[in-house]
Amino acid sequence: MKANTAVSHHKTLDYGASEPSMRSQAKRARAANQRIPKWAYLLFILLAAFVTYRILQHRAKEVKAAQPAPRPASVAKVITKDVPLYLDEIGTCAAYETVQIQAQVSGVIIGRHFQDGSDVKKGDLLFTIDPRPYQAALDQAKAQAALDQVTLKRQEDLRARKVIAQQDYDTAVANAQKSQAAAEAAQVNLDYCFIKSPISGRIGLRNVDVGNLVGPSSSILVTIQGLDPIYTDFTVAENDLPLVRKYLGGPNVKVETYLADGSITPRVGDLYFIDNAVQPGSGTVRARGVTPNPDRALWPSEFVRVRFILDILKDATLVPSQAVQVSQSGPFVFVVKPDNTVDLRPVTPGQPQQGDLTVIESGVKSGETVVVTGQLALSPGAKIAPQPYAAQPPATPERSAAAKSAMSYE
């Protein structure tokens, strides 16, 4: 008990002795704080803020350096307009009418009244066969017809007085009719001496000259072909028949003809004929259109490009053909977002191509912006520096003609 009391008393004395020491330390600390000026605190805060700003700036530069720079790319708007649904084929032209001129009577040609290869009109005189023998035959036939008419008149008077037999009167009537028919036949033969063009068209190279003896059994004198309008003959593949049958007979079915070099404006005509059977071996169906040809720019047997228009697609969605890319998953386009980043969008291209534009059945909408060039350097989410797409002029005359065709349906 005494020992515990001593220890406790000793602790009490230690506590009492240390309390003044702690107070003196606190006083010294307050004194030290009072010795630090306020501007030092402000300077410390400013330095800390500056260091923090520099650290954040350095980190921002690192992030910016890590991000790739925007890729340059040309862009274009998705548009809608009416375009034709068509099949492109290769065909040939054929004369709308072909007439081979041949002599109907025998005789010597005494006149030629045309220039080889010139245009002639219906009724123009082409050849003259010596008409003198036929004129003499006509005069003789007319004289005989006049004599038989006088005889018939006399027989009619005698019959009225009942002084001749009925058989004599019937013979006079028959003779009058026979001589009249002979005169008409002689007139036809005389007319055949003046060979005229039965159609309007372009005449070919003559096969006979003045002085040649011709007749019904002679060779063809010359050939005339009607070129306005002109036929356009082409074939349709068997695989396209279901599509053709769907629109056949519709109001928009047309046949457009143009030259491969684009030297003439495409000419739109009507479908005249389509065969009712597939040709064995070739797997095609023959078809024919009637094409206007007022300037004779299209010639028979000339190879032409044919656009078989089946219908008009109303408000079709179109993008530049270069915008459509193909991957393992199928066709796609890069669509530009408002923040100039791109999104890969799968699309369904339609048929057919409209000049430098492609019909899109699904995937994009009118008014959206798509990347036309520069796709190789892009990936989904990449940022671009957009530039307006300038359509390049057609590289070939054929594409030029196709572009004119598409524009005619805007």
Number of helices: 6
Q: From N to C, what is the helix and strand string?
A: HHEEEEEHHEEEEHEEEEEEEEEEEH
Q: Helical residue percent?
A: 25-40%
Q: Mind describing the biggest β-sheet?
A: 6 strands, mixed
CATH architecture grouping of the largest domain: Beta Barrel
Q: Total strand count, please?
A: 20
Mean of residue pLDDT?
A: 84
Span of the ends, CA to CA:
119 Å
What is the count of structural domains?
3
Structure classification: alpha+beta
Keywords:
single chain; 410 residues; alpha+beta; Elongation Factor Tu (Ef-tu), domain 3; Helix Hairpins; 3 domains; six-stranded mixed beta sheet; six-stranded antiparallel β-barrel; 20 strands; rod-shaped; disordered N terminus
Task: Summarize the structure in short.
The chain is an alpha+beta fold. It has 6 helices and 20 strands.
